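Handout, tutorial session.
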Amino acid sequence: MDIGELEEFLTGIGQKKYRAKQIFSWIAKGAVDFDEMTDLSLQLREELKLLACISCLNIRKKLESAIDGTVKYLFELDDGNVIESVLMEYNHGYTACVSSQVGCKMGCSFCASTISGFRRNLTAGEILEQILAMQRDHGIKVSNVVVMGIGEPFDNYDNVIKFLRLANSHHGLNVGYRHMTVSTCGLVPGILRFADEGFQANLAISLHAPNDRIRAKLMPVGRKYRIDKIIGASKIYTEKTNRRIMFEYALIEGVNDSLENAAELAFLLKGLLCLVNLIPINPVKGTSYRQSRRTRTEEFAALLREKGIETTVRRELGSDINAACGQLRHREISSGKPADPVWGTETGQRRGKCGQ
């Protein structure tokens, strides 16, 4: 629920609207039980316990990197489905990477998120609860949010937008829009809708190829939305928002990492307000894709910069806990039992189950 829906719910049971702000404030502070909300009357707390609940996630598995402190969570939802979230620590604070769907329909051949199939969309509350659960468990405050976990955000557009507004609300997480990033595989209608939302959240587009021939092999969505359409939508987005787009490009040895590919990519993006983020691909079991050599990654980045394209190479976090998106969930589902960590520290924690 957003605050308006909560106000409507509360007035429907004979309460004042201002109670919604009190409840939202407690949830943002990490409350998981109505009994913690001491500024509510005992009678109201008892009534709320009968009619509603706060948390819909249980921590089914937690892996913590011994290298950099990255924490990967496997959450169990109220219906038994599982999703992944990641908590990353940077110099500027903590970043939460959240999932937007249970599984994914997009079928990208290098991504583990799609292997176990698509189950359903997450509600805005279930997306938000991933952050609240990580904050409670780790005892920190998240300052940046990336919707880059399992699922295609623009395939669950309305719930993702509702989540962003909840996260931004000063009654909620109070995270600024400029500290939020939504990543899409290139759903053109979603890009155009996002341009009209009127807030300053960041947009990332998973491109991963400089031409349609390579992209269609890597990403089935490339057969529906050609690169020229994606670039056209990107130009409209930057013109309307004056916000830079980040193009994500996973380097795969022998597939999309030649210097000719780099030159083609530079030509494609010339004049566009953008940044290219090169990603050393995470190996996924069952695929033959290999990470590009470090020297090739450096050469690829250097050529893009030489051509005037701002370029970064993503820092690899959680490499010792197999932190590629979707891998932990896939192992859990395929084995039928809790997934074992590869390295690092494993902990498990469960909370009382509840619906939403």
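The second record follows below. Compare its token runs with those of the first.
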Amino acid sequence: MKITGIETLVCHARMRNWVFVKVLTDQPGLFGWGEATLEWHTRAVVGAVQDIAELIVGEDPGRIEYLWQMMHRQHFWHGNGIVRATAAAGIDIALWDIAGKIAGMPCSRLWGGPVRDTVRTYCHLGGGRMEDFYETSVEEAERFADLARQA
């Protein structure tokens, strides 16, 4: 099996953009998704994903540790800072997604099984200007609270 391409999908949000990474393989319908969001550095992360893709397209996606080492070591002398680390993390997550799909199990099982049965959630409304929050209507605040309870 080989990696045939790496794509990014940017979802624009109010105060930040989410960057998703899709690793494609030569197996029909088999791909993995990762997340590589770094607030206020969207274009830099997308560019770093494209740079790293040049290194690993054609490689076996099952060699996750080898590919991580390659991503880290090949860029060490080129400024392996937070932007490149975020890009590599998104690719790494996508590789684990592929491994989980092949094994027919969630990644948590690949990593040794779940640690707990429940996960606490919270709702974050994002950054921005405080004045914008003062203008939020009571109805809108109640809607946000309801969404948080449903998380």
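Points raised in discussion: The mean pLDDT is 88.
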